[in-house]
Design goal:
It holds the Pfam family Amidohydro_1. Its cofactor is Zn(2+). The chain is an alpha/beta fold. It is built from 14 helices and 17 strands. The protein has helices spanning about 85-90, 95, 105-120, 135-150, 165-180, 200-215, 235-240, 260-265, 275-280, 310-330, 340-350, 350-355, 390-395, 420-445, and strands spanning about 1-5, 10, 15-20, 25-35, 40-50, 55-60, 125-130, 150-155, 185-190, 220-225, 250-255, 270-275, 295, 375, 400-405, 410-415, 415-420. The strands form 2 sheets. Strands 2, 3, 4, 5, 6, 14, 15, 16 and 17 form a 9-stranded mixed beta sheet that branches. Strands 1-7-8-9-10-11-12-13 form an 8-stranded mixed beta sheet. Helix 5 links the parallel strand 8 (about 150-155) and strand 9 (about 185-190). One 2-acetamido-2-deoxy-beta-D-glucopyranose binds near residues 83, 84, 87 and 447.
Amino acid sequence: MQRSGSLSQIVLVLYHVAIAACAKLLSGGTIIAFDQETEELKVIRNGSVLIDGDRIVSVSDIASPFDVPAGGRTVFKTMGSNTTLADYGSRYSALVAAPLFTPDDLYISQLAGIYEAMAAGVTTIVDHAHHTWTPDTSAAGLRASVDSGARMYWAYTFQNSSAEFGIPEQIAQWKELAASMTSNLTQLAIAYDDFTTNPTGADTLAVADLIRESKSLLTTHHVEGPWLLGNSPEDLHRVGVLNSSTPVVIAHAAFLDVRGAGLLRSTNQHISITAESEMHYGHLHPTSHLIMDQASLGVDTHMTFSTDILTQARLWLQSTRYRVYQNTIDRFQVPAQNPFSVNQAFLLATRNGGLAVGRKDLGVIALGAQADLVVWEGRSPGMLGWTDPVAAVILHASVGDITHVLIGGTFKKRDGRLVDARYYDEVQDRFLASARRIQKVLKDTPLPSQEGSFLTGTPYGYVMQLDAKRGEGTGYGPSFV
Ligand SMILES: *[C@@H]1O[C@H](CO)[C@@H](O)[C@H](O)[C@H]1NC(C)=O
Ligand SMILES: *[C@@H]1O[C@H](CO)[C@@H](O)[C@H](O)[C@H]1NC(C)=O
Ligand SMILES: *[C@@H]1O[C@H](CO)[C@@H](O)[C@H](O)[C@H]1NC(C)=O
Ligand SMILES: *[C@@H]1O[C@H](CO)[C@@H](O)[C@H](O)[C@H]1NC(C)=O
Ligand SMILES: *[C@@H]1O[C@H](CO)[C@@H](O)[C@H](O)[C@H]1NC(C)=O
């Protein structure tokens, strides 16, 4: 399962949480709010947030002014600690993984993965759901998403899964699922990766029609450079799905050029920079820092790395600073400024995720916004002593410092524990049983050899191996799987 465009909202050090019926008051903490007029972050110290139902009804600079009214794929975890993108494609990706999963494995893996994200402070998920291999795996993935209680754009991937269950059959199932959706938090969306490989085929035209008719969010993967994986903004525009109010989230958008970036700006569509994935697998993101005004942050295959947006923000901030400083250093000069602020990293992790899914009411603490809140323990060993709350979160906090997570005004994590904790014990046991069985199959499968060319025809190239021990060729050592 790949995820992109996730986001979280953040509150710091809230000392008191009062709850009565559906109204909740979080008070006595520092709030990183959003000023809708100036479009800037606004820090409120010792303030409070009042939630009624699923909305923020007041954000105040007074600690306690109100009377509270009465009233997927995650099973592969640690199996790919040193994979490349090409390895990933031939060993773990959608159609390779398909035979390993029963609908039950899929359900429990999806649920465990979403709990992992919610515990880590992710309040909205766009899931590029690759697990649409059969009608039963598709239904299981959607059911797990709804059951999880997450705010979710579950993007059904239209792909050539098998001769019997091709794209026309998948579109028919999508329509049936759409007709029976009753959840307020989970929305059916669309994922498609064949805009370039099959630009005028009947399948692509049918998917484009569905996007236009249903106005459902589209997500796709765009990775160019030597990878040649297509789905550029230009290719999406050509089939008429980019220039409308229907949101499009382009994952990675690695090697975006001036034309593509301009098209995203003029159509107000967003990319999802999955910083950790792009560094881990080697697809890179050489130009993404030049289009941050149309960017959000995302998490990729979290079997191999972290699932939280905070880590993405920190990695993206520091690696981008490195990239930009390098330019000055390369001119034999000493950097005179810092190029990229913690406030910008914070906005990418929160508000820009909301904008990417076309929602001004997500990713911000502001009047009328959805009450999606993350509460950090400001007296944790890592954060103790902060004065700038934005810097405290972006540079010092860890996921372990998150005490509460609320989505749509409902606690999902409270006092450091998932709210469904007892139920979660059972999910863990079922998940581990599936994971052990599937991991065994993978352990018994030889690693792929990357010789000759990548699937798009580009030749594989030599990668220098690094050593942390003295001597020639001490290399990786074993993977402990
Ligand atoms: C926060 O404000 C309340 C009153 O609104 C006050 O009693 C309390 O001492 C303040 N706390 C801090 C840390 O300033
Ligand atoms: C899926 O397979 C069918 C039959 O082989 C083919 O006509 C169609 O173009 C394929 N679709 C995509 C998106 O590759
Ligand atoms: C969805 O929201 C509506 C209106 O806010 C509410 O009446 C309904 O009970 C909600 N449904 C679910 C499944 O939460
Ligand atoms: C997008 O559509 C608007 C009108 O709906 C048009 O003015 C604009 O030129 C279009 N942009 C592109 C890039 O096609
Ligand atoms: C990963 O490490 C294993 C040894 O544990 C090695 O056999 C494999 O070739 C490595 N993979 C890559 C892509 O370097």
